[in-house]
Amino acid sequence: MFKSSLRLSVCFFLSFLSLSCAADTAVNNVYQDGITLTITNKIFDKKAHKIQNCPKAQTPCIIDGKIFYGGNGLLPKVEVASLVFSQNGKKVYLDVSSIYDTGVTNSNIKKYISIERWSSSYRIVGYLGAGEDKGDGGDEPYIAHWLVMPNGSVRNHLGDYESLVSLVFKVNKDFNISQ
Known about the structure:
The protein is an alpha+beta fold. The protein has one domain. The chain is built from three helices and ten strands; from the N terminus they run H-E-E-E-E-E-E-H-E-E-E-E-H. A four-stranded antiparallel beta sheet has the order 7-8-9-10.
């Protein structure tokens, strides 16, 4: 009884911090074609990372040598430790470098990350940083895009939403493409 109560308390505490809990009864991470997408979050430990501030500002811009997303101009609170695409017993670990404060858990993952079949491959699109359970009013949203192919995966986009929208408008204008 004590162990069960302790486990529930730990799960409640972890979900409060937007972290996943293995025995989460609200897990909703099963997609079409028998695919599961499992996210593992952990508390951001600034001592485990090399952090650089933006030039002429005292806000963090670079973590571990890369521009990062999430944090809303501050150090992130949560980092994505892994995002695993599983199908028929095969696991593919997606590139989650530079991804922080997504607001995504295994219970709300289908709301923020979609999977679409492309022939023998899958396209995964994540709308991140504007998730629930933020506690701080949310972040500026950003988008990640991966392709999962029979021989592995590649992340072919990670960027802020506004830049992506501006790029689409510019391409449409430059190439006279009408919607």
